[in-house]
Design a protein that fits this description.
Chain B: One of its GO terms (molecular function) is sigma factor activity. Chain B: One of its GO terms (biological process) is DNA-templated transcription initiation. The complex is a heterodimer of chains A (about 200) and B (about 190). By secondary structure, chain A is of the alpha/beta class. In chain A, about 50% of the residues lie in helices and about 20% in strands. Chain A has helices spanning about 5-15, 20-35, 35-55, 65-70, 75-85, 90-110, 180-200, and strands at about 115, 125, 130, 135-140, 140-145, 145-150, 155, 160, 165, 170, 175-180. In chain A, strand 2 and strand 3 (about 130) form a beta hairpin. Chain B has about 190 residues and is mainly alpha-helical. Chain B has a single domain (about 1-185), classed as RNA polymerase sigma factor, region 2, helix turn helix motif (Rna Polymerase Sigma Factor, Chain: A), CATH 1.10.1740. Chain B is built from ten helices and no strands. The chains are: A alpha/beta (about 200), B mainly alpha (about 190). The interface between A and B is large, with 36 and 43 residues.
Chain lengths: ~200, ~190
């Protein structure tokens, strides 16, 4: 076999790969008919392939799939939340908006300063606002961080924030509201905002 | 099949982890077989093939869906096998101590370089003998022979899986065949 050219072995492999040219195939066949050593070599290669190919089909062990699924990283929740966010953009936007609004409103709420709506005939005594007897206040009264005593008349809404509303014989034509909880404060602000917003359309 | 696989891949990418189980179900046997033939050890084959699926899951977003999924998956598995073979070599003697556990026989513990006495080899069952001869091949020939003759993949696919030129794949298959022929002839 040592006398045979190396390209004969190359042709054998080309043949086994299934991409031999017709020309090479004819040369190979011709050579194999003449040379027993190369014929033997070719046989051995074919037998080798047949040997490897006779390997039994191997299948994965039982419960393989379950085991893989258990090994997967638990990224599911994160993805789930993202998915929920993507599906409900309006709720997310509303939530974010509400959060920021609450924050600004809360900063207002924690403002402990006393304030009152300016009306001409109100008496302010320390942190107590008095609507004197016999007087008629035209318009709304809002008292922050102080008390309100009404002895006269109010032709409008009365709102007391973080304080007490005291009335004996008062006449109030509008609504009376007392706010001293954080949540109520937020609710009030939100309501006020919505009302203002609605007014824009009504005008 | 590719259409189904791509559909499942899209579902997984959208966050549906369960859709991945169909992918595992489709490829588990082929992937396990490659690993088993490369490593010659059931437990390692199971561990590595599971790891290959986990890596495929984690890196699924990097898979180009215009390409063949099996090629990509097999590449992950063959790379993991080759890494394992290279790491295993120095501590082979420690491994040999665990022979005989859980259906493993001594042949499954043989490192590629190890040669058994002729007598022992001739008494082997055919299937053990095949695995023994495959595991004696150097790993660069082993991977191409396994992909070509056990998985029956085309040369082009093997070239894609192993990320090497077609010419290199052919050369390795030729040398692998010659190496196997010599191994079988020596007996």
């Amino acid at each position: 076999m040592s006398t045979c050219p190396q390209y004969i072995v190359d042709y054998m492999h080309e043949y086994l790969d299934g991409d031999i040219s017709r020309e090479h195939e004819q040369q190979l066949k011709k050579h194999l008919q003449e040379c027993t050593d190369c014929r033997q070599h070719m046989h051995e290669l074919s037998d080798t392939i047949a040997f490897v190919k006779s390997a039994a089909h191997i299948t994965a062990p039982p419960h393989f799939e379950d085991k893989v699924m258990k090994r997967l990283p638990k990224g599911k929740n994160r993805v789930g939340i993202q998915k929920w966010f993507r599906r409900h953009p309006i709720i997310v936007a509303a939530a974010v908006f509400f959060l920021f609004m609450s924050a600004t409103m809360l900063s207002n709420y924690s403002n402990e300063e006393f304030s009152v709506t300016k009306q001409p005939n109100l008496i302010v005594d320390g942190q107590t606002v008095i609507v004197p007897e016999g007087e008629v206040v035209k318009g709304d009264i809002i008292v922050k961080n102080g008390d309100l005593v009404i002895e006269g008349e109010v032709d409008g809404n009365v709102i007391v924030i973080n304080g007490e509303y005291m009335a004996s014989t008062a006449v109030v034509t509008g609504e009376i509201e007392e706010i001293d909880q954080v949540f109520e404060w937020i609710w009030y602000e939100t309501k006020a905002m919505v009302n203002n917003f609605m007014d824009l359309f009504e005008e | 099949m590719d259409a189904l696989v791509n559909k499942r891949i899209k579902q997984v990418l959208k966050g549906d982890q369960n859709a991945f189980s169909d992918i595992v179900s489709l490829y588990q046997h082929k992937l396990y077989q490659i690993c088993y033939r490369m490593l010659g050890n059931k437990q390692e084959a199971e561990d590595i093939s599971q790891e290959a699926f986990v890596r495929a899951y984690i890196n699924l977003h990097t898979f180009d869906q215009k390409r063949k999924f099996s090629t990509w998956l097999y590449r992950i598995a063959t790379n993991l096998c080759i890494d394992r073979i290279r790491k295993k070599k120095p501590d082979y003697y420690l491994d040999a101590e665990v022979a005989g556990t859980d259906g493993l026989n001594m042949y499954s513990q043989i490192a590629s370089s190890e040669q058994l006495p002729e007598e022992t080899v001739q008494q082997m069952e055919l299937q053990d003998r095949i695995q023994y001869e495959i595991s004696r091949l150097p790993d660069k020939y082993r991977s191409v022979i396994v992909l070509k003759y056990i998985e029956e993949l085309s040369l082009q696919e093997i070239s894609d899986i192993l990320d090497m030129p077609l010419g290199t794949v052919k050369t390795r298959i030729h040398r692998g065949r010659e190496a196997l022929r010599k191994q079988l002839n020596n007996l």
